[in-house]
Amino acid sequence: MRVFAVSALALCGAVLGQSSVDSYVATESPIAKAGLLANIGPSGALASGASAGVVIASPSTVNPDYLYTWVRDSSLVFKELIDEFTTGKDTTLLGQIKNFIAAESTLQQTSNPSGSVSTGGLGEPKFNIDLTAFTGAWGRPQRDGPALRSTAMITYANWLLTNTSSSSEVLSDLWPIIKLDLDYVANNWNQSTFDLWEELDYSSFWTTAVQHRSLRQGATLATKLGQNATLYTAQANNALCFLQSYWNPTGGYMTSNTGGGRSGIDANTALASIHTFDPEAGCDAATFQPCSDKALSSLKVYVDSFRSIYAINDGIASNAAVATGRYPEDVYQGGNPWYLTTAAVAEQLYDALIVWKAQGSLQVTETSLAFFKQFLSSVTTGTYKSSSSTFSTITAGVLAFAEDTLAIHAKYTPTNGSLAEQFSKSNGTPLSAFDLTWSYAAALTVFSARAGTVPASWGAKGLTVPSVCELGPPAPTVNVTFNVDATTQLGEDIYICGSIPQLQNWDPDTALIMSPANYPIWSITVAVPPDTDIQYKYIRKNNGVLEEWESDPNNEFTSPVSGTATLNDTWR
Ligand SMILES: *[C@@H]1O[C@H](CO)[C@@H](O)[C@H](O)[C@H]1NC(C)=O
Ligand SMILES: *[C@@H]1O[C@H](CO)[C@@H](O)[C@H](O)[C@H]1NC(C)=O
Ligand SMILES: *[C@@H]1O[C@H](CO)[C@@H](O)[C@H](O)[C@H]1NC(C)=O
Ligand SMILES: *[C@@H]1O[C@H](CO)[C@@H](O)[C@H](O)[C@H]1NC(C)=O
Ligand SMILES: *[C@@H]1O[C@H](CO)[C@@H](O)[C@H](O)[C@H]1NC(C)=O
Ligand SMILES: *[C@@H]1O[C@H](CO)[C@@H](O)[C@H](O)[C@H]1NC(C)=O
Hints:
CATH topology of the largest domain: Glycosyltransferase
CATH architecture of the largest domain: Alpha/alpha barrel
Keywords: Carbohydrate metabolism, Glycoprotein, Glycosidase, Hydrolase, Polysaccharide degradation, Signal
Protein name: Glucoamylase
EC number: 3.2.1.3
Signal peptide: 1-17
Shape: globular
Bound molecules: 2-acetamido-2-deoxy-beta-D-glucopyranose
Region (Disordered): 550-572
C-alpha cells in the first residue's frame, strides 16, 4: 500500500470550499465508522437481534423494511473493514472479520429459495438477520454476492499469508469458503442475474466486472495455495472478454444491463470502476479502471444525466458537480439522489488523480475528450506530462470537481452526520432507509481515496482480452410446461409472460402464444433457468390485440433444479 498525502494532491490547484470539505471529512469519518459498526451484530447498537458477523442493511423496518442482511452490502462493508485492517489503519477489527467469515460460511450452507449450497443457493441475495433463509418473493438470483464476498475474504487471506508466513490457517479455515464462492462464479458467471438494484434480470456490467475481479484474484490465491486455478483463469478470461461488450461507443458509456429498456446509464458503472480499482493497472481500459478513457467518458454521461431531473441541481454550471442517483429513469421512493452514488463519483475521480500523479502523466483520447474538455475547453488528444500546464489545469479541475461532489454530499448530510439511503431531489432532506450501512461504507471508501490511500493490487495489470469470447459453460435450463384451463371466444388466444427473459420480462407485446391443441387447456413448454423463482401471468388477446390480463396476484413458482415440471393452472 502506498499513501499519497492529500496536501500533495491539493497542491494541484486552489479549490473553492476545500477547507469545508476537510472539516466535513474530519467530522463525518468517525460518525460513518461508528454508524457502520452500529449495524453489525451481535453488539452493534442498532443491530439487536442480528447474529454475530451479520451486517444489517439498515435498522429501518417500515417503508422500506431493510432489516435483513444482503450478501452484496455485507461484503462491500467488510471489503472496507478488511482494507482498514490489512493496511494497518484499524488493527482492532480482527474479531469482526472472523465473525463475518463465520456468518457468511453459515449462510453459504443455508438452503434457501435459490437452492442449496451445491444447487445455486449461493446466488441468494438476502437472508434474515438470524442467519435463516428469507423465503418471500424476491429478485433472485443475484450473482454478484459470491464474487464480492470472495474478494473481501481473499484480501484477508492474502494478508494472513504474509502476516503468518504459513498457509495452514488459510487452507483450513478460509479456502473452503472462498472456493465455494469462486466455483459458483466460475460456473455461473455467464447466466442472467438480477442487477445490483435487484430490478433487471439480464447481464449486468457491475456483476461481470466484480466476477472478473474475484476470478482473477481467486486464481492467484489458488496457485499460492497449491490448488487448481485452471477453471478460474479460463473463466476470468471469458468474463473479461464479455465485459468489453457493455461498451456503447456511440453513447460513450458502458451500458449497465443487457436488457430492460432503459438508457443503461447507471451508477452501476462508476461503482464497478471504484470496486475494481487496481493501482498497478494504470488507466487500463480493458478493466475500466477509474482513469481509463471509457470509465471517464461513462462517468460524464452518468453525471450529466441528473443535471436536469433533480431540482436541487438547478442552476449549477454544466461542467460542475451535482448530486447523482442510481439511474435517470429511477422511480424507487420517488427517484432521488443517493449518498453512496454521489460518493462514488468523487471516489472515481480521486482514484484517477492518484494514478495520474503516480505515473506522472495523463492521456486524453478521442473517447475521453469530452470528459477532459469540462476542465480545459481547448484541450486536444495527447499525453500530458505532470510538468505541463495542461496537466496542472486538468488535475486541478478534476480535484475541484471531486471536492465539490463531496461538498454536495456534505450539504445534504444532516448535522448529526446520519446517512440515509437517499436525499430529496427537490430539497435535499434525507429520505428512504435511515442509517444505511452501505452509505456509511461508501463515505469511508471515498474519504480513504481522498486521503490518497490505495488498496492492494488484484492483478488487473497488463491483461490481454481474448480475441474471441467463449461462452463459458452453457447456461443450463429446465423445461417447464404451463397448462391453463381457459375458455375463449373465436379470435381469442391465450398468451403467457412473466418475470424472466424467457417469459419476455412481462412484455405483453411479445408474450408467448400458447397452443390450444387440448382445448380448453392451453399449453406451452418453455426452457427456463433451473432453480429460479419465477412469476408469470396469462393474458388474453383478440386477433393479437391485448384484451385482458389475468387478475392479481401474479402466479409464482420455483423451477426445478433439474428435469422438467408441469404447472396446471385455471384462468383467473
Ligand atoms: C501481523 O499482524 C498483527 C496485527 O496487525 C501485527 O501486530 C503483527 O506485527 C503482524 N506480524 C507480521 C509478522 O507481519
Ligand atoms: C455469455 O457470454 C456470451 C459470449 O461472451 C455472450 O454473448 C452472452 O450474452 C453471455 N450471456 C449472459 C447471460 O451473460
Ligand atoms: C484442473 O481443473 C481443470 C478444469 O476444471 C481440469 O480440466 C484439470 O484436470 C484439473 N487439473 C488437475 C491436476 O486436477
Ligand atoms: C439525525 O438527523 C436526522 C435528520 O434530522 C434524523 O432523522 C435522525 O433521526 C438523526 N439521527 C440520530 C441518531 O439522532
Ligand atoms: C427441453 O425440450 C427441448 C425441446 O423439446 C429438448 O431438446 C430438451 O432435451 C429438453 N430438455 C430437458 C432438460 O428436458
Ligand atoms: C399437472 O398435471 C400433470 C399431469 O396431469 C401432473 O403430472 C403434474 O404433477 C401436475 N402438476 C402439478 C404442479 O400438480
